[in-house]
Specification:
Length: about 220
């Protein structure tokens, strides 16, 4: 383990985490984790601290290889953001109306990822995102952290999003697929059908983290 990337990969596998697990907790893309592990890109000081917290390892060991991974390591991330848990009815226009809401009326959940002030959380309903195979599954009852400031539409192609069709009074969680001129909201569960959308869909935000309570 002579490089930063080799130590990242070693510790991730030691903790039985996928690259997607690490990416969601740090707040970056899975491809960024791949680049770190292959030493294609380096770690910023901010990401070094976040990654060492997620991997529960000494940042000095991660960066330089000194000591052991478990030496003087805090168990929990040191900083959290609090995100309001809202309803699926509110989600579609939350980014436009959140400042008018009585934020103290909501329950909050803590997240260690970087999110904007407009970020919100939702409790997943139904089985459409419960996958039968693949790297990610979002079961009913899981909590998703949603970031309304997602950039451009091409930036979220292939990503899990929260969206609302104009003929519906509730938002939904799906994977956005852009295929040429066509756009689809695709479930992860093959028993459900994808939904083709055009100008009749409002994207409420990108899912940045999935929190599953195993109790």
């Amino acid at each position: 383990m002579e490089t930063v990337g080799s130590r990242v990969k070693f510790r991730r596998r030691q903790l039985k985490m996928t690259q997607k697990d690490v990416a969601d907790l740090v707040g970056i893309s899975a491809s960024a984790v791949t680049q770190w592990e292959s030493d294609s890109t380096g770690l910023s000081a901010e990401n070094l601290l976040k990654l060492s917290s997620v991997l529960r390892c000494n940042p000095k060991w991660l960066l330089l290889g000194y000591g052991s991974p478990d030496e003087n390591v805090p168990f929990e991330p040191s900083e959290y953001n609090s995100v309001p848990i809202i309803s699926w009815v509110q989600a579609g226009d939350w980014a436009d109306n959140y400042s008018e809401a009585s934020l103290h009326d909501y329950k909050y959940i803590k997240t260690s990822i970087n999110v904007s002030d407009k970020a919100f959380a939702l409790i997943v309903k139904g089985q459409s995102m419960t996958a039968t195979n693949g790297d990610i599954s979002i079961p009913e009852g899981a909590i998703v952290i949603v970031e309304p400031e997602y950039g451009y539409i091409d930036d979220i192609n292939g990503k899990i999003i929260v969206a609302q069709q104009k003929n519906s009074n509730e938002a939904t969680i799906k994977k956005l697929i852009i295929d040429g001129p066509n756009k689809y909201l695709a479930p992860l569960n093959p028993q459900f059908n994808p939904i083709q959308v055009n100008g009749d869909c409002i994207i409420a935000g990108k899912v940045k983290q999935v929190i599953i309570n195993l109790n």
